[in-house]
Write a structure and sequence with these properties.
This protein is mostly beta strands. The chain has two domains: about 55 residues, Metal Binding Protein, Guanine Nucleotide Exchange Factor, Chain A; about 35 residues, no CATH class. The protein has a five-stranded antiparallel sheet with strand order 1-5-4-3-2, with no helix packed on it. The two termini are about 20 Å apart.
Length: about 100
């Protein structure tokens, strides 16, 4: 998750489209109209972007938590904290869910 002002699309911005399931949805999914790939998810009310790690080829990805884990379909036993929604610092409840 990145603060909105820290995210810049450096190439292919003309191919990014947004999908919002409902008008009340706090998540705006952004995808590539050319290939259909997921690019990022904007969370305007939180001022954050969830950037898909695969779109950042030089990023060394070191996960530290799981968010929205209560909706998981694939249990992940990696020892990381699993939040029902988001940690409190990110505007969530901070509620942890069991593995």
């Amino acid at each position: 998750m990145w603060k909105s002002d820290s995210v810049t699309v450096t190439a292919g911005a003309e191919y990014i489209a947004t999908f919002q399931k409902t008008l009340e949805s706090i998540s705006h999914r952004q995808y590539c109209t050319k290939c259909g790939g997921h690019v990022m998810i904007s969370h305007p009310t939180l001022g954050l972007f969830d950037v898909m790690a695969a779109t950042l080829p030089t990023l060394t990805f070191n996960p530290s938590v799981h968010v929205h884990y209560s909706a998981t379909v694939l249990p992940i036993d990696d020892g990381l904290p699993k939040y029902r929604d988001f940690p409190i610092e990110m505007g969530g409840s901070g509620e942890l869910v069991p593995q």
